[in-house]
Structures are given as structure tokens and as C-alpha cells.
Amino acid sequence: MVWSRDEMCARAAKELKDGYYVNLGIGMPTLVANHIPKDANVILQSENGMLGMGPFPIEGEEDPDLINAGKQTITALPMTSYFSSADSFGMIRGGHIDLSILGAMQVAQNGDLANWMIPGKMIKGMGGAMDLVAGVKKVVILMEHVAKDGSAKLVSNCTLPLTGAKVVDMVISEYGVFEIVDECVKVSELAPEISIEEVRDKSQAEILS
Amino acid sequence: MDKIYSNSKEALEGVAFDGMVLMCGGFGLCGIPERMIDALKESKIKNITAISNNAGIDGEGLGLLLETKQISKMISSYVGENKIFAEQYLNGEIELEFNPQGTLAERIRAGGAGIPAFYTPTGAGTKIAEGKEARQFEGREYIMEKSLRADLSLIKAWKGDSEGNLIYKKTARNFNPLMATAGKITIAEVEHLVEPGKLDADQIHTSGIFVQRIIKGSHYNKRIENLTTRKAND
Question: Which CATH class is domain A5-208?
């Protein structure tokens, strides 16, 4: 049985270790924050210039000068600091952030990632994604295993323009957890009652057990 | 030199021209120079190359200058929230150069610090590396990115003094301090304008040397793009 979105987020949250500085991408990765173990001190960075991101504000207490990278209103914590975009990306590009969780359109077995543009469609821009995958110590992709049109997203080679070359360390989908090791996709965990044959059937990349 | 101007229109006098390169602070609608954008709209200056992380939204921020077709090129990292922009881009009316957000920030920082170019691994092996010098350092591939400067930088701060010293508020800081350093002329608009000595010198984010003109703005919209709240007992 495949994992629900909530279960996927909960599984991704297990990658957030005590003391980690973490950047969560927009969309499903943002929801991972709801599953951080209570006993783990995980510090969230928002690339628009904040370290130590708190929960969403209580209605009426929102501050337009305090938003996250998804432009959502947010709150500060006692340990929060603010900084400029240059300092923020100094943290990211300088290798000071331990982990980033992002979404993807395609991941190749060599760790190539495509998540920012589809040729012929209006492109919104890469935002901070290219910087995150180039600079953060560990990159985890949280995505649905197969695209809406039924095509595989875990592929032998990305056909979409890359966000980064050989940058992905781990993929978490509704089928399980997969590690990119030596340019191969290795199963590290499967969702309950899911077989490796099912994963291979839904993937275009070579899947090693 | 008196840096204080009584309003945004006066502050813009003599420093804005057709075909200029403009830097505009802000992330989304957070920390944007609202009153200076109004003045620029009123000035009818056109053919602007605008360097800004985003392109505003319809009716707000740089979206106002898109409506009047004053911008001919944008250098940005993300322009997703703007229908007018998408329309003009698809019609070929506006040119667009995407930069990774950190590369954009660093290009501006470098411009302000007198560094003509730098190497970064961001974007190596992707479309944005095309046409750029690539070089290996310790076995890793890097691409060369050139710095950015502007004819005019418009920035927003929370507090400022008559010397141009500035303090920003929370995440409204974002690109503002970098852009202050990279403008040939930088105009700062502030919510609170005070006498020298009223700001704690240890807390100043941008030194007055980077600011040539300053105005006290008012009637801020500070529109929230994505209001997200929780229930009190969550």
C-alpha cells in the first residue's frame, strides 16, 4: 500500500536530525515541518533572509514584514535572526545548511535533478533551487513517483532542463525511500506491501535492491 | 550635502532616464519601495531594465510599471505571480533573464564591492551555464558570473537618518542592502526618518555612504501575497 502525502512528509521528517539547519522547498516539502520530532532541535532557514522560522501566525497577528520564501506570513522564535539575501545565500552556497527537501519533475539515476522548467510552457523561474542543490550538504527530493500524465519521474536520464547535475542524494515517494549511490538508484525502504517489481514498473531508472 | 527630499517625485528628479538600469529591492511584495515605484510610474520613464528578484503582482510593486509598459527587460529569479508579465513575455514585448536567486544576490553584492566577476557551482551543467566560462577548482565545475550595477537603485528601509544610515525590519531586508551598494545613485525610502544620533550606530545595516537620497514614505499598502494563519489552539 502506497504512503499518503502525510505519511510521505512524516517519513521525510525522519531525515531532519537534532541540530540540523534545514531549508524546506515550497509545496509539499513545507508540510514536512509539521512532522519534526518534538525532541529534535531543527532550525529552519528561509532563503528570503531568516533563520529560525516559527509557525504560521494566529489570525490577526500576521506581519507583512515577516514572510517565508513562499510569501506566506510566518512568525519568529526566540532564536530567530534576520539577514540580507546575500548573507542568506552565503549560508546556502557556502555549505552551511545541512539538508534541503525539494520537489521534482524528474530525477535521474545519476542524481541529476529537473524541477524548474518545461520547455514551451511559461517559466516562473528557478528562485533559489539551483543554489540550494549546489550548496546544501544533503539534498532530499520529496515527490510523487509518477507524473500526472503517467510518465516516470525516476528516470535513466532527465529529458527536462536541469536544476543541477548529480546533486540528489535521496528520493522519497509514495512507494518508498531511494538513495542515489554511485549513479544508481538503490531501494532503502519500501512502503508497506510494495514490492520492488512495482517500483521498477513505475520507474524508468534502473532500480537496485 | 542634504540627502533628504520632501517627496518621491522630487527625489527622482535628474536621476531617472529612458533606457536606464534599475535595481528595485524587495522579495515578493515584502520590503518594496512603494512610493518610489509610484513616482517612477508617474515619470513615464520607459525602456527600463529592471533588476529585481520578482516582478510584483498585478496592480502592486513592479506590476505597476509593467501595466504602463515602462519595463523592457527584467533580470529576476522568479516571476510566477504576475499575469501581465506572462502576457507581455509571451507576446515578446518584454525580455527576461532568469538568474538563480543566490547568483542574483551575489552579482549585486559583487557589483557594489567592485568585484567584476566570480565563480560559482550554482547552475553548472544546466541551461544557465550556456555561453559562460566554466572552470574546475579542486575537481568541481564552476561557472563565471559577472557582477551587476545599476544607474539607479530604489530601496526600502524601516528607519533611516538624514545621513542615509538605514535599519531594515525583519524579512523586509532581503535584497535592499545589496542593491543600496550597487546603484550609481541609491534612493532610500523609509517609514521613520530621524536625526543623526537617534539610530544606534551598532545596529545600522546600511551605512549612509551608499545612500544619496532619502525620503520619508507614507501610506504603505504592505499587501500580503499569501496570508497564512493558524487557529489559536494549534
Answer: alpha beta
Task: Work out the minimum CA distance from B141 to partner chain A, whole angstroms.
Answer: 10
Closest CA to A82 of B42, B166, B205: B205
- Compute the distance between CA of residue B165 and CA of residue B77 in angstroms, rounded to an integer: 28
Summarize pLDDT for B115-160 with one digit per residue, the tens: 999 999 999 999 999 999 999 999 999 999 999 999 999 999 999 9
Annotated domain spans of chain A: 5-208
The ipTM value here is 0.96
- From A47, A144, A174, A179, the catalytic residue: A47
DSSP class per residue in A62-126: --TT-B-TTSBB--EEEEEEE--HHHHHHHHHTT---EEEE--SEEETTS-EE-S--TTS-----
CB-nearest partner of A67 from B28, B78, B234: B28
Give the integer Cα–Cα distance in Å for A68 and A65. 10
> Residue B234 has what pLDDT?
58
Taking only the tens place, the pLDDT of each residue in A111-136 is 999 999 998 888 899 999 999 999 99
A7 classed as catalytic: no
Cβ count near A127 (within 10 Å): 27
How far is the CA of A152 from the CAs of A99, A121, A171, A181, A200, in angstroms? 25, 20, 14, 20, 10
Give the dihedral sign, CA B152/B154/B157/B162.
positive
Cβ of residue B124 closer than 8 Å to a chain A Cβ: yes
CB contact under 8 A, B106 and A86: yes
Mean per-residue pLDDT of chain A? 96
**Rg (Cα) of chain A, in Å, rounded?**
17
Quick check: A42 and A20 in contact, CB under 8 A?
yes
Q: How far is B91 from chain A (nearest CA, A)?
A: 12
Chain A residues within an 8 Å CB radius of B63: none
